[in-house]
Amino acid sequence: MIYLDNAATTMKKPDEVVEAVARAMTSFGGVGRGVHPASVAAGMAVFEARDAVAALLGAPGADRVAFAANATGALNIAIDGLLPDGAKAVTTAASHNSVLRPLNKARDERGCALEVVPVDARGALDYEALERAVRGASLVAVTHASNLTGDVYDAARIAAVAHAAGAAVVLDAAQTAGAFPLSMADLGVDVVCFTGHKGLLGPQGTGGLCVAEGVDIAPLLEGGSGTHSFDERHPRFMPEALEAGTLNAHGLAGLAAGVGYVAQRGVTDIAAHEAALASRLEGALADVSAVKLYGGGGDAGHAGIVALNVGDLDSAVVADYLATEWGICTRAGAHCAPLMHEALGTAAQGAVRVSFSPFTTVEEIDVCAEALVAAAHDIA
């Protein structure tokens, strides 16, 4: 099997991630639910995960990292907690449904206004439209990199425009955390939402949000906190404010190990590796007339993703051919990015997404290129 669906989830994990989860499964108690050794061990593992994430993503400190089940959960927490009833929000057409749907819900159920800044047929963001859209906005929620094309957008520029208008900025870093250089402090965003099971190389069921100092997010969920049990409402101090219920300590132990691997190897090295693989695949397909490549509109770089189609074939047909005839795993369809597909003109056909990890090899990319050339001749 050649696994090239890493933008969905990285399948290959560092050995230390597997080992950390296995140890946790046989030794952890409940986080913050006791002072016995099993509970303390779980609590220490969670703190180590907070500390590792904060260091890697440039958060103010471990106490400003709150965990959730994934980036979707984190984005719902941030958007719901920062967007007042009746207020205006802004996003872009590059956004994933994890941003679009919470904003649509706020529009439909809480009387909020929503403006979507367009992208062109290459996925390039219209910054002049952004400057107009943010007037009167309370919240700007955007993706750092398109999960469809891999195009990376200038989050620092977006944050500067939003802050000049008085809006808070939530950044969806699902495709960049661990895979592309990202410093919350340098970008100047208010919240960075991340998932653990992609570029951070942790288990599924992990993710969270880094919150800047002075940014107060109202809890989405209330319930068990392990402390302040006689308070009628959930605590409002970080990180407990955003973490009702028992945390996934087993998964977070694995996340800490994954982040440790990423930090040791270096995000810059990983990004360069994946960018080189993307360039190699695109170069091998550049002269294949039946293959159409998408994207290229990012103004701050490119994540390890290549989006393409073969002739007029439905993307699912191509992905099935790659899987059954070549043993290559890719992703076809809409990728939870409907507005991006509309901009690229692929709403009906979808797209085949090929995505890389630190463990993807040049040899695997060459086989993928060969397979796509064969698809252009055999089934197009």
Strand adjacency order, main sheet: 2-8-7-6-5-3-4
Tally of separate helices: 12
How would a crystallographer describe the biggest sheet? Answer: 7 strands, mixed
Regarding CATH, which class of the largest domain? Alpha Beta
Number of strands: 13
Supply Rg.
21 Å
CATH architecture of the largest domain: 3-Layer(aba) Sandwich
Oligomer: single chain
N-to-C CA distance: 23 Å
What sort of overall outline do the alpha carbons produce when their principal axes are compared?
Answer: globular
Order of SSEs = EHHEHEHEHEHEHEEHHEEHEEHEH
- The low-confidence parts are none
The overall pLDDT average reads 95
The CATH superfamily of the largest domain is Type I PLP-dependent aspartate aminotransferase-like (Major domain)
Percent in helix: 25-40%
Number of domains in the coordinates?
2
Which fold name is given in CATH as the topology of the largest domain? Aspartate Aminotransferase, domain 2
Give the percentage of residues in beta strands. Answer: 5-15%
What structural class should be given to the helix and strand makeup? alpha/beta
